Each structure stands twice: as structure tokens, then as C-alpha cells.
Amino acid sequence: MRRLSLCLVSAVLLSVTACHRSAPQVPSNRPDRQTVKEGMLHYNQQRSQAERQTIEAYLDTASGTFVETDDGYWYCTDQAGQGDSIRTGQTVRYAYRLELLDGTVCESTAGRKAACVEVGRRQQVKGLDLAFEQLQNGSEARILLPSHLAFGIQGKDHVPEWTPVLYRIKIIATE
To answer: Within 13 Å of residue 71, how many CA atoms lie on the same side as its CB?
Structure first.
């Protein structure tokens, strides 16, 4: 009986000490954080390069002269407006048509009320907030936005993720 008790106590002590470790176990197939970070960076660079090639192919065939901005979008003024450029804080009423670069129309204000936003308040995609400052009252322009200034990695309704888009804008009024 004593021998059985001694074996039982030894087995319990052995199992408790065998399971105790000072550092958490890391699965051997799990990459370290730096490897994951480098992999994500490489993937994003590849996506950006592919998107840039898509944009450049579109620009090669597009009519008009598109100007690339320091903020990373392109615009082409089809009709100059009047007065000062639109500024942050101004309210802008505008008509638009949102297209994919293959010409597929995703949204439009045609047959609807014009859109109305306060510039700089992110009431629309970031790229439009930036682009409005290139325009004046009465301007008509095409704004080509890379995905990171449009709908990004999530996309929206009929706009797939990682997709550059083209806005055809007409500024109706500014306040």
C-alpha cells in the first residue's frame, strides 16, 4: 500500500513539473513577426505595382491630359470653372459618375439629386476631398483615384477591392 502511495505521489509530481515551462510554447510552423511583416510589405508592394500598371495603361488610352498630383491621384480638367479654387470647409454640390477603368458605371447622380458635401470632412472618399481643391465652381473634370484613395481593400457595392476608379465630376455650386 505504501509503495502504491509513493508511486502515485511520484507520478503526480512528475506530471506537474513536466508540464511547467518558463516560456510559452510556439508552434514550429508559425513564422515570427518580422517574417510576417516582410511578407505583408512585399504583397502590398506587388499590389501597388500591379495597380500602377493598370492606371498607366488606362492613361495611355484616355483622352485629355491627366496631371498626377503629389497626393497620388490624377485629374484632367475637361472644362475650367470660374473663381477661386475650392477650399477645405466649403460646401460643394456636384454631379458625378463613378466608373471602373473599363468603363463600367458603378454609381451616378444622373436622374437623382446632386451630391452635397463639406470638403475636408471625409463625407466621401479621401481622394475626392483632395481633388476638390483642384477645382472651381462650374469645373468639369475626371478624377482617377488609386484604390488607397478610393475604396481600398474592402471595395464597395460594385467596386471590387484594390480597384482604381474614375470619377467624372461637375461642380454645380460652392458655398
So the answer is: 19
Residue-wise pLDDT tens digits, 98-143: 999 999 999 999 999 999 999 998 888 999 999 999 999 999 999 9
> What is d(CA 58, CA 82) in angstroms, rounded to the nearest whole number?
29
Dist CA 146 CA 68 (whole Å): 11
What is the average per-residue pLDDT within 6-24? 57
Cα distance between residue 57 and residue 59, in whole Å: 6
Closest-CA residue to 160 (of 145, 144, 147):
147
Question: Does domain 69-174 sit in CATH 3.60.10.10?
Answer: no
Q: Where are the domains of the chain?
A: 69-174
pTM (predicted TM-score): 0.78
Query: What residues contact 114, with CB distance under 8 A and at least 6 apart?
Result: 93, 94, 95, 172
Q: Are the beta carbons of 169 and 81 closer than 8 angstroms?
A: no
Residue in this structure with the C-alpha cell 498607366, named with its chain if needed: 56
Query: Predicted confidence band at 19 (pLDDT cuts at 50, 70, 90)?
Result: low
